[in-house]
Amino acid sequence: MLLHFLSSSTASSPLCPRFLLHPNPPASLRFLAMSAAASSSSSRPVRGAAVPVPSLGADEAGAVADEAFQRHTSPSLRRGGTGVAVVWFRNDLRVLDNEALVRAWAASEAILPVFCVDPRVLEGSTHYFGFPKTGALRAQFFIECLGDLKQNLRKKGLDLLVRHGKPEEILPSIAKAVSAHTVGPSAQIVYAHKETCSEELLVERLVRKGLEEVQITQGGTSGQKKPLNPRLQLIWGATMYHIDDLPFTVNNLPDVYTQFRKAVESKSSVRNCSKLPPSLGPLPTSCLDEIGGLGAIPTLESLGLSVTKAGLAAASFAFVKGGESAALGRVHEYFWKKDQLKVYKETRNGMLGPDYSTKFSPWLASGSLSPRYICEEVKRYEKQRVANDSTYWVLFELIWRDYFRFLSVKYGNSIFHLGGPRKVASKWSQDQTLFESWRDGRTGYPLIDANMRELSATGFMSNRGRQIVCSFLVRDMGIDWRLGAEWFETCLLDYDPASNYGNWTYGAGVGNDPREDRYFSIPKQAKTYDPEGEYVAYWLQELGSLAKERRNFPGASYIRQIVPLKFDGGNQKKDQQFNRQRRPNNMYRRQVK
């Protein structure tokens, strides 16, 4: 049984963390975990150099980041605390608009930033089917995020302490060592951003428990000193709209996105980004020797991983680097340099190339980019250039991202359960052959295969592609949606649990909104979104020589179709009957992609 997150709406369910319990899957599926890594290196098209995202040079990207920091710096900020505050970085790998970091600075004399490389996250397995929890591509992106965070902290007078191990073991020992060198109440506070899903919540509780077991004697004379416990201070900072500003409690969150969106747009406001002081220093160097120095950022090799360069070379674009600097560079490039924001709504359903969509999602997922910063930049663009449906639609998508995060609080672990939040009883297959054909891009349907090969090669897939491959897996194949969700968890650069599983429950028809339950006709999708077969020919080179109109319908010129389609798109009445009362184009609205 999968864990149940103990929110007030699910408090009756026991807690069993996803990364601590690994139930035995059916025998026919056990080997999938062993073959998962191998499937990533299967044969792929070989292409020339991919277009980098962002395409800015290092100097230009650095200048963009520096300018963004400068605009959000306030010399009038004052710090009034004492002692040393520890800042525990999690999925918030940024300096700009990091409220935990700014609060720690204001309440202390010095800050020690810490990141714990948790082996359960980077080296563990997914809950049901044992896939690698973090694939090599996302691990590499994460390593780059850490490197950039370290660099940006140095620019602000700090540095990053890196430790490999469990936070609940590392943070109490660091807090004790730091407190032994300082005096003041801030020495007992570890600041961090709040998470919402069960694994992350379990770690929060374990860290809190570990800190409570640390006793530090401070204050008074030698005979009157009183023991103090370090404590964990959690701060909300993952969404565009702050949880405290919602016009309802999370337990009363509407089950229909449109109702949620209209309520927050009319009754709530997006807070401004947190201002930064000119310097965040000093670093408490006096205690570094005792805790073993700053440590080193891991490498892929140290994690036992490697990236297949041939796969990356096949991509039409490539995320040039993880980290806040690249993220800010991409916002600048997409909004201001290339002026793409004004046409986002018209191009967002594309599948090929660097600029049909924002490509912000990997940086949002790692916390390298603040959603509030994107909102501020949209508003600035609307004032200086143009405000239209496209500029609004970026915010519309960010509200979807918020919605899934808040739903993960309301519904807890039910977003990971087979029946989803509504406990829908359905019969699902876990057929090994069918799932492998989907995973490896060998279904016989070019549009499915091209998208799945792109995912394995790059860690990314378009919003449109995600809707299509999800629908095919659960509707046409009848495969357990959790297999798809866990495979996405392995592969996606922009994976986060609330968005990923929230969207898969919607796609499988088990989400909180019963109206979000649609069938995507492969022929119809191909004709609408890849009419000349450009996308499929890019990823399936054998189709390139066919006439454009045949690339998505190659017949005997391509591999045999693994299953027949439930509907072929030719019977409009049947398609409409299946999709009646379903709202279009919202099944996979997880982030701005």
- Tell me the overall shape: globular
CATH architectural label of one domain: Orthogonal Bundle
Q: Alpha-carbon distance between the termini?
A: 32 Å
Number of helices: 22
Provide the low-confidence segments as ranges.
1-46, 571-591
Q: Main beta sheet, described?
A: 5 strands, parallel
Q: Quick check: average pLDDT?
A: 87
Q: Gyration radius, to the nearest Å?
A: 24 Å
Name of the CATH first level of one domain? Mainly Alpha
Look up the CATH topology of one domain: DNA Cyclobutane Dipyrimidine Photolyase, subunit A, domain 3
In total, how many beta strands?
Answer: 9
- Please estimate the helix content: 40-55%
Class based on secondary structure composition and strand pairing: alpha/beta
CATH superfamily of one domain: DNA Cyclobutane Dipyrimidine Photolyase, subunit A, domain 3
In percent, how much strand structure appears in the residues? 5-15%
Strand order of the largest sheet: 4-3-2-5-8
Short description:
The protein is of the alpha/beta class and 593 residues long. Helices cover 41% and strands 7% of the residues. A hairpin with a 7-residue loop joins strand 6 (216-218) and strand 7 (226-228).
What does this structure look like?
The strands form three sheets. The chain has a five-stranded parallel β-sheet with strand order 4-3-2-5-8, sandwiched between helices. The protein is globular and about 80 Å long. With 593 residues, the chain is α/β, with parallel strands linked by helices. It has a domain at 432-569: DNA Cyclobutane Dipyrimidine Photolyase, subunit A, domain 3 (Orthogonal Bundle), CATH 1.10.579. The two termini are 32 Å apart. The model is unreliable at 1-46 and 571-591 (pLDDT under 50). The protein is built from 22 helices and nine strands.
